[in-house]
Amino acid sequence: MVTPNSQNEDVVKRTKKHSFFSWTAQDAINPISIARAKGVYFWDADGKRYFDLSSQSMCVNIGHGNRRVIDAIKAQADELVFASMNAVTKVRAQLGEELARVTPGDLNKFFFTTGGTEANENAIKMARAYTGRHKIIARYPSYHGSTLGAMTLSGDYRRLANEPGIPGVVHIFDPYKYRNLLYREGDSDEVFTRCCLEQVDEVLKYEGPHTVAAIFIETIVGTNGILIPPDGYLQGLREMCTKYGILLICDEVMTGLGRTGKWFAVDHFNVVPDLMTMAKGLTSAYLPLGALAISDKIYDFYRDKVFYGGLTYSAHPMCLAASLAVLRVMEEDDIVGNSKRMGKVMSKLLADLKAKHISVGDTRSIGLFGCVELVKNRKTKEPMSSYTKCSPEIVKLSSFLKEQGVYNIIRGNILHTNPPLIVSEEELREVFEIIDKALEITDSFTEKS
Ligand SMILES: Cc1ncc(COP(=O)(O)O)c(C=O)c1O
């Protein structure tokens, strides 16, 4: 017999019986059932409310349950549900026009996929075909997706379990100031940037720039810690790529569509990549969709050459309709502006946490893309947890947050703060009050200096 109080447990138990879950040992998972969602909140099957501080997987950018998007999806279903990959549809024409308006520079053509991983896979193929070179320079500790090619690009520990991957991928370090060994206390951003770029140039010389098809980066590393490059770094990479005839590919799967307070993270640096990928916020996850944005010069290359790639669900009309409606909502409600404005509030709230809690080693944010990096010792910067095995301290922290009705991603020692971009100041303050309390737990495990 299922009592009303145990519906959550019942759904979890029945689902676990027949589902296989991602990125976890199957017995280790203790999921929340999600029954309904609205705005920045969702409710479990027992009616418990959670603040969605991770926008699910940093993807529900416009918030849950937006009526205009739901109605657009319904209307598309009434009009036309599916058309094969090379058919054209009204919604495909419209979305292309809208996307070209918001993407930077000459990124004017879009190859539609069903998610971010596939967009990245196709970017690898295009870069290799266009340049006639095979190597790809990627970075530690990025994440680019879970298929073999995208996984090989990824610079975090998840790659190791999937090796050997594709040949020709070389990793360089991210300008992760808090932990990069090239950074010396007191160095200006200019000095640090120069050191990082010189290191990239050195790697390229050893690899042979003429063998390198692309430098493939998350513009701002997301899941692995919101690593915002110092000003000048991205511009430097762009110059280096142009000099050697290497393509610059920016993965904006997480950072794109307003997350950082601009349409795309590259816009903060006025850099135009040769290829750029996006997903997540592209439909705010109302339906699955990814896209590879292609610059005019690469499109021109393919005018008389076959692109050897395709997907049954490429440009699925339902997903495109969701995306078109999301872009309209973003403009009508000035979602990017809100991300920028609330980003300033969040940045201050994060700084307050750092000033108050000894377990906070660093905080980083840009727009509503933020995190708290937790340490056991501020001097040695010893992480509060490793990535591969969650420490008991982090388990306690995460149980407390769950109990208090806060849903957020904590990976290793990184506590993410990535709310839907519609969040209000009041809502932000409400959830940060809970985080403030939660950090008393981690403080009790940090050495006082
Ligand atoms: C930066 C980045 N690239 C690629 C991906 C993979 O996207 P998807 O899971 O939609 O395939 C992700 C997913 O988290 C991501 O954060």
Characterise the protein shown here.
By secondary structure, the protein is an alpha/beta fold. It has two domains: about 30-60 and about 335-445, Aspartate Aminotransferase, domain 1 (Alpha-Beta Complex), CATH 3.90.1150; about 65-330, Aspartate Aminotransferase, domain 2, CATH 3.40.640.10. The chain is built from 13 helices and 16 strands. The chain has a seven-stranded mixed β-sheet, with helices on both faces. Strands 11, 12, 13, 15 and 16 form a five-stranded antiparallel β-sheet that branches. It has a four-stranded mixed β-sheet with strand order 1-2-3-14. Strand 11 and strand 12 form a beta hairpin. The longest helix has 22 residues, at about 335-355. It starts with 6 loop residues before the first helix and ends in a 6-residue tail after the last helix. The mean pLDDT is about 95. Pyridoxal-5'-phosphate binds near residues 120, 143 and 145.
CATH superfamily of the largest domain: Type I PLP-dependent aspartate aminotransferase-like (Major domain)
**Ends: how far apart?**
55 Å
- Taking Cα atoms only, what radius of gyration do you get, to the nearest Å? 22 Å
Shape: globular
Ligand species:
pyridoxal-5'-phosphate
Number of structural domains: 2
Annotation, overall tally of beta strands: 16
Structural class: alpha/beta
